[in-house]
Structure formats: C-alpha cells, structure tokens
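A.,

Following up on our hallway conversation. Structure tokens first:
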C-alpha cells in the first residue's frame, strides 16, 4: 500500500477544502468499507479525509412532516428513532435486516450509501473485474454467479448493490444532499446510484470533490414493510429484498411504492410494477401480474436464474402483507 496522508478536519468547510486540494483524496465515513478495500489494495487513495467528527449526526424535522437525516447518523440510532419506526417502518426494518448489531452501531447513513459491491470477483485481484480495473472483463458472467444481479446488468458487470437501507430509501423517494466548495446539490436517490453500462467503475452520481451531508425523506402516509430473503437469518446479504408501501381504499390501490434489492446492480425502483398496481385491485392476481411485468426484463444465468421466481414470490408476499384484512406472513 502506498503511503497516504490522514486528515481529520474540524468542520465541513475544512473537509471540502481538503478534498478540493487533492484530486486523489477520499472521504472516509464510519459506514464505508474503504478501509477493507485499502487493506486489499483495491483502493489506493493519496489522502484519507476522516469526516467522523463533523456535526452531521442529527435527525431533524422538515416542514411538512419529512425528516432530514445527517450523513453521520449511525444506522442503529436511525433504526431506533421513534419517528422512523412510526412513519417509515420499512426503513427501520431494512436497517435492522443488515449486517450485525455491532456493525450497525458503527455504520453511518452516508457510508451506507457509498459502500461497494461484495462481488467476490471484485475482491479477488487474480480475477477479471471491470469495476476494479476498467476494460479487464467480468469473470462473474461466466463464473459462479448465484448471488449476482438479473436487473440492470450489462456485458461489463452483473454485480449486485449490497445495501438494504438504500432499497428502502429508494422506495421512499429520498434525496441525497451533497456539498462541495462549489455549493450544495440535491440528487434523488433513485438517480444517485448508476447502472454499470460500459463504465461499471463509475458507481454514483457523486462528484470526486463532493461530500454527502444529509439524506432527506419526504412524508408518506401509506403503511410500509421491508422483506428480505437470504441464505441465513442474520449477517447475510439479500438474495431478494422488497421495500413496499401501499395504501388501499375500498379494495383499490390508491398509492404504491416498490423497490427491490439483491437482484439488481443498483437499488431498483420497480416503476413498471407500480404502474400496473396503481388504481387496480389489491389482490394476489394483480400482485403476480405486476411482479411478472417488472421481472420481464430480467437477464438470468444458470447460477442466478432462481432469483426471478424468488423475486416474484417475494413481491407478492410483501404486498399481501400490506393488504387490509390480510395476516402478515
């Protein structure tokens, strides 16, 4: 590992100045896996800017009932926040479904947004990986790809995005606040993470000199739930996950939000399924039809073909749980 400078700025402006002065710098937040990647030689920053001491650790009310969540709010604190548990249960459930209690106590909201894929070929420097080394190829496509994506894939990359929290935030129409010396920018979370295309190494819309300072979540009245299917009960990444919010009046769906995890190269907003569901009946047949439409574009491989059927079943089960009069499974 090359020598690098370590900087711990006293405030946000100093942090922004430190990165603006060094194009090779990286922000180090409490929830990122940057340190792991540095140990493996995958990331080689010239400067590490430690932002963990900055005053970005509050959850504040927004006019109209939404929440502004500081980038350094710990995941465990956010999941336990009474306002999150009552207004956004899917978000609390998603956070609690991720990692372990010890990691949630250390991980931050900003770090969670910026965590890298856990594709084993990305971590194995003996393997070809376009995300790690642009133009090298992708060994996952013809290799062991049971955990890999079936939506949003390209010929360059089929790695899944690992976050649970981001799936819920995508369904909630959250907005990322990013600051640099040039000013403040607001990025819808649905647009924050990028599809791989021909440039899988470019993972987010965040500029090199920008720091995530907060995430804003607008109010939502519909009941919500996060459901995660994985190989074991804890400390495992999703094979399929569903974040859903649905409001039903007289048997008709009047509001619906749906996002998927574990099956896509980014947190996946299920727009086609939402379009089919909205205004229709809250019934199993409608749930299955919407799931089929959303998964119609799936590109499967022998190792991960099971995910399409599992996603369909998980979408239907989650929506059934949100249907008035139905008993949660």
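Then the amino acids I'd put at each of the 329 positions:
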């Amino acid at each position: 590992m090359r020598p690098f400078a370590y900087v711990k700025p006293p405030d946000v402006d100093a942090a922004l100045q430190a990165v603006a002065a060094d194009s090779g710098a990286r922000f180090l937040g409490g929830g990122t896996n940057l340190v792991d990647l540095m140990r493996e030689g995958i990331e080689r920053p010239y400067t590490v800017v430690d932002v963990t001491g900055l005053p970005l650790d509050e959850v504040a009310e927004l006019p109209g009932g939404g929440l502004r969540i500081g980038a350094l709010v710990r995941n465990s604190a956010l999941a336990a926040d009474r306002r999150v548990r009552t207004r956004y249960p899917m978000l609390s459930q998603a956070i609690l479904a991720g990692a372990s209690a010890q990691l949630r106590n250390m991980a931050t909201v900003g770090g969670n947004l910026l965590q890298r894929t856990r594709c084993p070929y990305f971590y194995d420097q003996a393997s070809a990986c376009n995300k790690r080394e642009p133009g090298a190829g992708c060994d996952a496509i013809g290799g062991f790809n049971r955990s890999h994506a079936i939506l949003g894939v390209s010929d360059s990359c089929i790695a899944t995005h690992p976050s649970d929290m981001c799936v819920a935030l995508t369904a909630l129409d959250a907005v990322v606040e990013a600051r640099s010396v040039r000013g403040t920018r607001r990025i819808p979370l649905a647009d924050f993470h990028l599809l791989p295309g021909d440039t899988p190494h470019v993972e987010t819309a965040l500029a090199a000199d920008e720091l995530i300072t907060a995430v804003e979540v607008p109010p939502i009245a519909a009941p919500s739930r996060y459901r995660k299917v994985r190989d074991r009960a804890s400390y495992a990444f999703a094979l399929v996950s569903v974040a859903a919010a649905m409001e039903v009046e007289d048997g008709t769906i009047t509001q619906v939000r749906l996002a998927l995890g574990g099956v896509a190269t980014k947190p996946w907003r299920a727009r086609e399924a939402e379009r089919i569901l909205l205004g229709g009946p809250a019934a199993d047949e409608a749930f299955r039809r919407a799931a089929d439409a959303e998964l119609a574009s799936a590109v499967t491989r022998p190792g991960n073909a099971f995910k399409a059927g599992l996603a369909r079943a998980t979408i239907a089960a989650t929506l059934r749980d949100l249907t008035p009069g139905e008993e949660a499974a």
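The mean pLDDT is 93. Curious whether your intuition agrees with the design.

B.
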